[in-house]
Amino acid sequence: MTAVSSTERSESPPTETGVMKREFTLWSAFSLAFVFVSPIVAMYGIFGLGLSTVGPAFWWGWVVTLAGQLTVAITLGVLASRWPLAGGVYQWSRRLIGPRYGWFAGWAYTWALLIALSSVAYSGAVFVAILFGLDATSPSTLVMLAVALLVLTTVVNIAGRKVVKIVATACIVAEVVGSIGVAVYLLIFGRYQDPSILTEGLQSEPGTPLMMTPFVFLVAIAGWSFLGFESASSIAEEVKNPKHAVPRAIVFSLLGVGAVILFTSFAIILAIPNLADILAASEGDPIIAVLAYHFPPVVVDAILAMFVIAFLASLVGIQAAVSRLVWANARENELPAAGWLKRLRGAGGLPSNAILLTGAVSIIALLLLQNEYVNTLLVAFTTVGFYVAFAFPVVGLAVAKIRGTWRPTERLFMGRIGTVMSWVALVWLALEITNVLWPREAADLWLINAAPLIASVAVAVVGAFVYRWSPVGRGRVESSLVLNARTSAAPVVEEEGTQ
């Protein structure tokens, strides 16, 4: 065994609640975060929405959003290099400010992940429906298919880490063939448009308010695509040498996904023969119409099958992250039925009960949101939920720096650059949260306009009531200083050769 420093000991979870085996590597953490974000899911999930509402210029939204989210990824990487603990956002917020702040961070992050499960399942259901010749425009059909995907995802996660690794690897293969392979072919043999088409849709009428301009709106749409890179931190207690591996997995997964999205979407946009015809001919998604124009049916079906694999793997990654977050909250006895939720099963110590709960809640959310605007609502809910969750640790880090309580003794991820990026990330998150919540739909759709804000307020209000009855709200959890002193006595055991 290798020796551990006092700083490593301070990151250990309380041993009385059980320890999960360190069976993941840097590649495992990267691949899990990669499939969580998933270029296929991130791009194809909103490609049709961006193309129909803004035009080809919505591509630039990905460029701006990727740059902004990179500052967030670096900041979270800094925190992960100091506290590589399951639950990521929740654990960092808890240690930066205290148990109360951490509880609300965990609450917001949990709901962001749960709604993301529902959102990605619904988007994936579109491709499942098209692949099997079902009605891809029927909300009820898509909801039922999404429920089936969630059931399958739950089974995969409960099956164990080896199965999760296999699914993640299959997804990466599907991404390479289904995204990059198709893009290369289209650029060489299927190009119809000049790159100047990427400016179509940026123009706005004179006097248009800034928040209503196409450019600002397309950045709001693109916000859905770069979420989940932080999920590498959710399995930190199952990763070998997590201080080194987890921060790099967070940043590299975002950059990898971003590069694939920008390249593939660029190729598909240039391969559109006629924008109006493609939008009119699309059944559920215009990408399928583009592929059908350039490829024979058997090839389109093969590509669709790879898309479905990618969506399934993304769901597996999301559920792995949220189940570990629920488990981490329960380990601190901060949730109802904590004793049941924090129970680990099997030789590898899997949080099976937390996995079952997250699958059930996401299915219920889908069943409650059955209407013609379900995809728009899920995208909006997911986007604002993640940005708010990201804001908790980023704001917490800023407050800790101002208070002078942020005094790491070890070298952290990216050194001084990471410190500077944390302030940029704070500004970016404030702007993007405002952007996503800004009402833009027609006046007669006021409920759809206000839905993200209403949902955010509802989650906060319900959270306040639940908090009142939680151990934290009743003062039964130690302060962050006592917590750090208590956990410093619990040793971290690394496997040989992981340093």
UniProtKB/TrEMBL annotation:
Membrane topology label: Multi-pass membrane protein
Places the protein is found: Membrane
Main localization category: membrane
Signal sequence region: none
A Pfam family annotated for this UniProt entry: AA_permease_2
Record keywords, A-Z: Membrane, Transmembrane, Transmembrane helix, Transport
Transmembrane portions of the chain: 24-47, 59-80, 101-134, 140-159, 166-190, 210-229, 250-272, 303-327, 348-370, 376-400, 412-431, 446-467
Gene3D superfamilies attached to this UniProt entry: Amino acid/polyamine transporter I
Membrane recorded as keyword: yes
Full protein name: Amino acid permease
Organism: Leucobacter rhizosphaerae
